[in-house]
């Protein structure tokens, strides 16, 4: 019996030391969520009534592709028309600039006359200095008003360019806006990720972002890594990703970023650092929100 035990221990020990070291190395297993690298949405610039939803979830779109067709809610249309009619609203500024320019010309003429009088000893140098100071003050006021006017004009010009994205026609100050359906364009190349609960006839408020667009290849996974295991992770390192929703199908991922700051700076709690991995998704099998099991 003792001989048999010794033989067993000898064989087991030999087998143990012949196994590769990696068979006993600890495996780091983490969980995270699949997400897109970018998610963008074009906000509606005013209260709108939906005419048509032009795309479906998962559909490929280019930048500028119509996502929705809509028209302005009546009150929003009235306010926008007033804005275009009013324009940069710089008439009062132009009037003030003209008045100051006339005053400047009058004072400069007076200064010129007084310089001759001072040169001939008949004028007051102190009065001349005061008049020249007034001219410089007027010049500064004119420069300030011109700057304000220019900024207002640039702001309105930028506003017209913004509106042209939706009207798809050139716009100018004072024009009557065309009575046509407007277009909500895709902000980037990508795929339609989600569409809100909107239908033809829906009233959607200003600033809403009803359609989300983003790329689907590659996809990103974020996982929290404990500070004690962070030394085993480095940028460029590969990891195996399993997706339970796809029958634990395996994908290869690569670490692209490691945060420098812990997600929780409380001394009483353990520190975790966010690690980002990229996963190729050429067949679009991975979808945002899938749970992912990451093995380092």
SSE inventory with pairings:
Elements: H1 2-18, E1 29-36, E2 48-53, E3 60-61, E4 66-72, H2 74-86, H3 91-119, H4 125-167, E5 182-185, E6 190-195, E7 203-204, E8 211-214, E9 219-226, E10 238-243, E11 249-258, E12 272-279, E13 291-295
Antiparallel strand pairs: 1-9, 1-13, 2-4, 2-7, 3-6, 4-5, 6-8, 9-12, 10-11, 10-13, 11-12
Helix pairs in contact: 3-4
What does it look like?
- The protein is α+β, with helices and mostly antiparallel strands and 296 residues long.
- It is built from four helices and 13 strands.
- It has helices at 2-18, 74-86, 91-119, 125-167; strands spanning 29-36, 48-53, 60-61, 66-72, 182-185, 190-195, 203-204, 211-214, 219-226, 238-243, 249-258, 272-279, 291-295.
- A six-stranded antiparallel barrel has the order 1-9-12-11-10-13.
- Helix 3 runs antiparallel to helix 4 (125-167).
- The longest helix has 43 residues, at 125-167.
- Mean pLDDT is 88; it is low at 7-25.
Largest sheet: 6 strands, antiparallel, barrel
- Enumerate the spans where pLDDT stays under 50 for 5 or more consecutive residues: 7-25
* Secondary-structure class: alpha+beta
Counted up, domains total: 3
- Classified by CATH, the class of the largest domain is Mainly Beta
Helix content: 25-40%
Q: Whole-number average pLDDT?
A: 88
The dominant shape is elongated
Find the CATH topology of the largest domain: Elongation Factor Tu (Ef-tu), domain 3
Number of strands: 13
**CATH-derived architecture of the largest domain:** Beta Barrel
Total of helices: 4
Radius of gyration: 35 Å
Biggest sheet, strands in spatial order? 1-9-12-11-10-13
- Assign the CATH superfamily of the largest domain: Efflux pump adaptor protein, beta barrel domain
The percent range for strand residues is 25-35%
Calculate the terminal CA-CA distance, rounded to whole Å: 44 Å
Give the ordered list of helices and strands. Answer: HEEEEHHHEEEEEEEEE
């Amino acid at each position: 019996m003792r001989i048999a035990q010794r033989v067993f221990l000898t064989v087991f020990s030999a087998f143990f030391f012949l196994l590769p070291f990696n068979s006993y190395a600890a495996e780091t297993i983490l969980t995270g969520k699949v997400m897109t690298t970018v998610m963008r949405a074009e906000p509606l610039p005013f209260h709108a009534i939906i005419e048509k939803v032009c795309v479906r979830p998962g559909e490929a779109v280019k930048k500028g592709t119509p996502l929705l067709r809509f028209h302005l809610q009546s009150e929003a249309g009235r306010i926008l028309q007033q804005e275009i009619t009013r324009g940069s609203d710089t008439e009062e500024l132009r009037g003030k600039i003209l008045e100051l320019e006339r005053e400047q010309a009058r004072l400069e003429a007076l200064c010129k006359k007084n310089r001759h009088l001072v040169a001939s000893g008949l004028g007051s140098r102190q009065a001349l200095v005061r008049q020249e100071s007034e001219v410089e003050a007027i010049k500064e006021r004119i420069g300030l008003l011109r700057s304000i006017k220019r900024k207002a004009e640039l702001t309105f010009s930028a506003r017209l360019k913004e509106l042209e994205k939706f009207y798809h026609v050139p716009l100018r100050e004072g024009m009557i806006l065309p009575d046509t359906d407007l277009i909500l364009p895709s902000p980037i190349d990508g795929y339609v990720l989600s569409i809100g609960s909107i239908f033809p006839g829906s009233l959607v408020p200003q600033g809403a972002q009803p359609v989300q667009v983003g790329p689907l290849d590659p996809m990103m996974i974020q996982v929290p890594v404990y500070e004690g295991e962070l030394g085993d992770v480095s940028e460029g390192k590969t990891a195996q990703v399993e997706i339970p929703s796809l029958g634990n199908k395996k994908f290869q991922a690569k670490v692209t970023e490691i945060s420098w700051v812990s997600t929780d700076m409380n001394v009483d709690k353990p520190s975790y650092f966010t690690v980002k991995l990229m996963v190729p998704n050429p067949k679009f099998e991975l979808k945002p929100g899938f749970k992912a099991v990451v093995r380092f």
